[in-house]
Amino acid sequence: MPKIPNKIGGVTMEFASSVTNEVTQDMLDALTATISTSAVSGETIEKLWISSAKDSHKCPSRHVTGNGVDISRVNGKYISSDYETDASVKSIVDGLQTSFENAPKRRENFGPSIKKKLGKDHAVSGHKDHFHWSVDGDHSACSKSLIERFFDLFRRNELQNPPSEPPAEICNL
After folding, report:
1. How many angstroms separate the CA atoms of 23 and 5, rounded?
2. Dihedral class, residue 65 (left if φ above 0, else alpha if ψ from -120 to 50, else beta)
3. pLDDT digits (tens, 9 = 90+) for 115-147
4. pLDDT tens, position by position, 91-119
5. What is the pTM for the complete model shown?
6. Cα 9 to chain center, whole Å?
7. Which of 108, 107, 106, 78 is nearest to 92 (CA)?
């Protein structure tokens, strides 16, 4: 898997110590299509903080397969505390989230400004302190893991009124 470089479009990429900065080529392509120092009109983006990539998430998260990233700081400022009070942070976050809607293979775009999945509004909790981007791509490792868990719960009689097969949303993650 490729690694997220230390610079994308002239923007310094910083990483939390827990981050494994490996992502799929599709995720890297979406990042490079979206991020640059001048990606947001009237603003200069100098650095972004990746708080999560391919790391400690569990299925069905797209982070598990390297298809997702979380960004929680812009130009050294925390989205959690500065999005509502710093016009530049808000402008950059809003602008990046808007631009990501045009990224190749974009899937999820959850943050304080936009919450969309596959280009449609999507109700999801959280994401006031960061934005999460993911792309379509091979996610079969999670699908397989969840299907195996589903049947394991069924065999142990831990599911009440189980369906005859896994729900389609598990198979189509």
Report:
1. 11
2. alpha
3. 999 999 999 888 999 999 999 877 666 655 555
4. 999 999 999 999 999 999 999 999 999 99
5. 0.81
6. 19
7. 78
